[in-house]
Design goal:
Layout: H1 2-20, H2 30-49, E1 50-53, E2 57-63, E3 66-72, E4 75-78, E5 84-89, E6 93-97, E7 112-115, E8 121-132, H3 137-144, H4 148-165, H5 170-174, H6 178-195, E9 198-209, H7 212-262, H8 265-280, E10 286-290, E11 296-300
Antiparallel strand pairs: 1-4, 2-3, 2-5, 6-8, 7-8, 8-9, 10-11
């Protein structure tokens, strides 16, 4: 590289100096210094001519501060040895802002605190998945620099979330409007990233924390709704049981009505004779007394 070229030039200068000063005892080594200097210069030029770009990165070329519009893709390239090549990562990157100290990209509580439409403070944990657009890498390097996370990703994300949170109540952000809020801020941040050469892949709302008083109110409401649903279930069950008993009573009443209307004196007398016959033919010893009404009185010896 450049350092090798400088060392090689120094060795050549030393070799010429020694060669011109014949009285110097080291003059006999002038050819050695010259040869080493030439070899070092060749190595320096070769290393500057060949440039390898790792997978998942692109190389941005600049010459004396002037950034070239085209990039070097991953692989081995032969370039102008005077060019400076800076590698930029084009793989998916993530930036997390969390209230938990060990989770966020920055140490400490880095969650986003916003004011909702009803004036309550809501704390949001968020992860941004993004990457650099390869064709826009020279523009990022020239206009933003390598610190695009602190200059673009972090401030744009936090600002857009605060700007959009004011359209929602705290409870809505926490429950019914959470997906709508996430889609809305995704579109806003995506548009801002695109103008700066960044591609927003996904926006993940990891957690939404409400004030303690609001949490207690929500939990109380949920418990009340659960109790109401439980009571509704009990009432429905009681109604079904009452309907079952009504149907059963109606069936018994219909049965009794049919029996009472269908039986005659002759039919009852016939059934009585059948019963007496069965008793008489039984193997058990019995004494039968016939009453005035014709109904038998049975005594067993058991």
């Amino acid at each position: 590289m450049v350092l090798l070229i400088i060392i090689g030039v120094i060795l050549l200068i030393v070799s010429f100096t020694l060669k011109s000063d014949v009285r110097n005892p080291l003059s006999k080594f002038s050819s050695v210094f010259r040869n080493i200097g030439i070899i070092v210069i060749i190595l320096g030029v070769s290393s500057s001519t060949f440039k390898q770009i790792d997978a998942g990165k692109v190389g941005v070329k600049s010459l004396y501060g002037s950034v070239k519009p085209d990039v070097l893709e991953s692989g081995l390239h032969i370039i102008n040895p005077l060019l400076d090549v800076t590698e930029l990562d084009i793989q998916t990157q993530n930036y997390t802002m969390s209230a938990i100290q060990s989770e966020g990209s920055q140490q400490g509580d880095d969650a986003i605190r916003v004011l909702s439409n009803d004036g309550l403070e809501v704390v949001i944990d968020l992860t941004v998945l993004y990457k650099i657009s390869p064709t826009d890498a020279p523009t990022i390097f020239k206009e933003i620099g390598l610190n695009y996370i602190d200059k673009i990703v972090r401030p744009v994300t936090r600002t857009r979330i605060r700007d959009n949170a004011v359209y929602y109540d705290a409870v809505a952000l926490y429950s019914t409007k959470r997906n709508e809020f996430q889609d809305r801020i995704f579109k806003n941040i995506e548009a801002d990233f695109k103008t700066r050469g960044l591609i927003l892949e996904q926006l993940l709302i990891r957690n939404i924390n409400l004030p303690t008083s609001v949490k207690a109110s929500i939990e109380s409401k949920i418990n009340a709704e659960q109790d109401a649903q439980k009571m509704q279930f009990v009432l429905q069950k009681e109604k079904q049981e009452a309907e079952r008993k009504r149907v059963e009573a109606q069936g018994i009443a219909d049965y009794q009505r049919i029996i009472s209307s269908g039986l005659t004196d002759k039919q009852l007398q016939y059934e009585q004779i059948k019963a007496q016959k069965e008793i008489a033919t039984s193997a058990n010893t019995k004494i039968i007394f016939m009453g005035k009404g014709g109904a038998p009185v049975i005594l067993s010896d058991k």
